[in-house]
Amino acid sequence: MVSSEAQSADLYDVIGLGFGPANLAAAGALLEQPRETCPISVNKSLFIERHHEFKWHPGMLLPGTRMQISFLKDLATLRSPQSPITFVAYLHSQNRLVEFINRNCMTPTRKEYSDYLAHVARYVQGQGIKVAYGENVIAIEEGGEGTVLVHSIVLTTGETIIRHAKNLIISPGGSPRVPRCIQSISPHPRIIHSSAYLSSVEPMLDTMKTITRPLKIAVVGAGQSAVEVLLDLQSRLTSMGKSTSQAHNLHLIIRGGSLKSSDGGPFSNQVYNPEFVDVMYDLPSDSRRRVMADYEGTNYGVVNPITLDSLFNVIYDQRVDGDIAGRKKNALAATDAHITIVTYSNLASAEISTHPSQTSTETDTHAHTFSVLLQNTLTQDFYEATYDAIVCATGYERNSWLSLLKSSSVGKHFGLCATSDNTRLSVERDFRATVNGKNGAFKAATNGINGHSRTSVTGINGEKTHAQYTSTETKDSDTIYISRSHRLLPLPTASHGLIPKIYLQGCAEETHGITETLLSVVGIRAGEVVEDLCSNY
């Protein structure tokens, strides 16, 4: 820990870890509680955010890209239509409500939605909610008398600040997931994740401007972000012009046989209704997994039909250009960057090499290429490919909260062990059954006997990879329990009055269903968390 350390004398009623849409909605819901009866003081509420200002997926605010959900599924409308933090209230404040209606479209652009979220962030701060920007939470510890100590580091100075809190709302968002074989050669200026695409793509292309041969860039992923990045790169490379007599090349590497359209039908979308969370939470775990599998096509590893049509038209136009050039022997080849979808392919390994045509020294990163070993997922055959740059649109990991709790003295009160390999989330019904069980059932469950785990990796638009459910009989594992209102349940062995209340947002897909990491019920969920927090204070 950094030697420069400060300790706040303030004791906060609640501290939120993260200040993305989930905790922003919680801040708004807290403001709507009756001030005269609410036991949580707005002035003693704090949210800690690592960004230096409010940001929402800045790396993917590509021009013209639209949200995948209705504007009515904002931070508050489904919970409280009269709330001052609805999207309609934002439009009215900007004098754009009538013009938005004239668009005749239920989905705003991603740029506008980002501005809406930033507007709400400014509003709640103006109403007394405190936000500590530019700080990264590095540890939490027991603080005694039912409090927790939150350790954060100020990113600009390295100073460590310790704050006391009676309650926590953990909404960590996701951390970029990069394939393991790519991790071994990262960081590199020509390997980027879609989460940082907009800020990284121009510097990445700048490193290749001196290369005279055609460029070859790989985009890895089969979801919305992957296709959006592919189309944007195609436009950028086309603007750069062809190298010598050939156009630049873009490869989209996917595990399946084709890109799949998202299922946006009204019946399928009922899985995103707020009441469906109750259905999911009440199901046995095996049934819950079956439902998740049934509805994956609504969001995970799929692409909006409009975006798919745009991509198909680009590829079709390539075919037209090729046919014309082939028929007219003296016709120049098209200057548009050429897109190829590489199907049934999985990254097996990757290493840095130097392209044979380059004369630069091997230590010059401008001369680097990436030698990639791909495996055909049908035949299991291996083949090699060489790329000048790689963009990973491979989703996010959402288990940073686990690491935080496991490494603290707080986690043990909820059944977490620092040495466990797997953690399973379970519902309150199972908690009661375990507590009331006989013959050491509680001990067995908390130690994960016959347990299993699930790790979900989810992108901003639904790219997702599931780790297999595996037996943990030979591994250390643990089970923790979460209420319907997203509060972690302390073990019966814990002194409940001395344990702070800890809530999770965006982390409990295993128990609460497919909406958990998405925006669909963020306003409803925030209201449930705040209501439970106030009623159980």
UniProtKB/TrEMBL annotation:
<protein>
    <recommendedName>
        <fullName>L-ornithine N(5)-monooxygenase [NAD(P)H]</fullName>
        <ecNumber>1.14.13.196</ecNumber>
    </recommendedName>
</protein>
<dbReference type="InterPro" id="IPR025700">
    <property type="entry name" value="Lys/Orn_oxygenase"/>
</dbReference>
<dbReference type="Pfam" id="PF13434">
    <property type="entry name" value="Lys_Orn_oxgnase"/>
</dbReference>
<keyword id="KW-0521">NADP</keyword>
<keyword id="KW-0560">Oxidoreductase</keyword>
<comment type="similarity">
    <text>Belongs to the lysine N(6)-hydroxylase/L-ornithine N(5)-oxygenase family.</text>
</comment>
<comment type="pathway">
    <text>Siderophore biosynthesis.</text>
</comment>
<keyword id="KW-0274">FAD</keyword>
<dbReference type="GO" id="GO:0016491">
    <property type="term" value="F:oxidoreductase activity"/>
</dbReference>
<dbReference type="GO" id="GO:0006879">
    <property type="term" value="P:intracellular iron ion homeostasis"/>
</dbReference>
<dbReference type="InterPro" id="IPR036188">
    <property type="entry name" value="FAD/NAD-bd_sf"/>
</dbReference>
<keyword id="KW-0285">Flavoprotein</keyword>
